[in-house]
Amino acid sequence: MTLALDSNATHLLLPAIEWLTQNATSLHVPAEQFPYQRRLRKHLAALPAAHPLREYLTLLLEKQRGLSSSGLVGRWWVLH
Predict the structure, then answer these.
(1) CB under 8 Å, gap of 24 or more: what pairs does 59-62 form?
(2) Number of domains in the chain
(3) Whole domain around residue 58: which residue ranges?
(4) Does the pLDDT value for residue 79 go beyond 60?
(5) Residue 8: helix, strand or coil by DSSP?
(6) How many Å apart are CA 41 and CA 76, to the nearest integer?
(7) Which of 64, 46, 60, 45 is nearest to 15 (CA)?
C-alpha cells in the first residue's frame, strides 16, 4: 500500500473486500511492516467517510490482517 502512495497511484488492483475479509489472517502482517503503518493511519484518517479504500485500510490497520501476494492470484478487482 505504501508503494502505491509513494508512486501517486490513481488506481489499485485489490480483491473484493468481502473475499479479503474472509481470507485475510494476522499471519500475513509481519512485524517488519509495522513502521509503515503510521503513515497508512494518517492516510486513512484523511480519507472521506465513503472512500472505498477505508475498508481495506481498516482491515489491515485496525484488525491487523492481510494476505501474502501468492494468496491473491486470480482475485483482483480495480479500486479507484
Answers:
(1) 59/17, 59/20, 59/21, 59/24, 60/1, 60/29, 61/37
(2) 1
(3) 2-79
(4) no
(5) coil
(6) 24
(7) 60
Cα–Cα distance, 77 to 47 (Å, whole number): 20
7-37 per-position pLDDT tens digit: 888 888 888 888 878 877 765 556 677 777 8
C-alpha grid cell, residue 56: 481495506
Strand, coil or helix: 7: coil
DSSP 63: S
Residue 52 has pLDDT above 60, yes or no: yes
79 bridge partner residues = 12
Quote the pTM value.
Answer: 0.70
Q: Are 10 and 80 in contact, with CB atoms under 8 Å apart?
A: yes
Give Cβ neighbours of residue 2 (< 8 Å, ≥ 6 apart).
Answer: 36, 39, 40
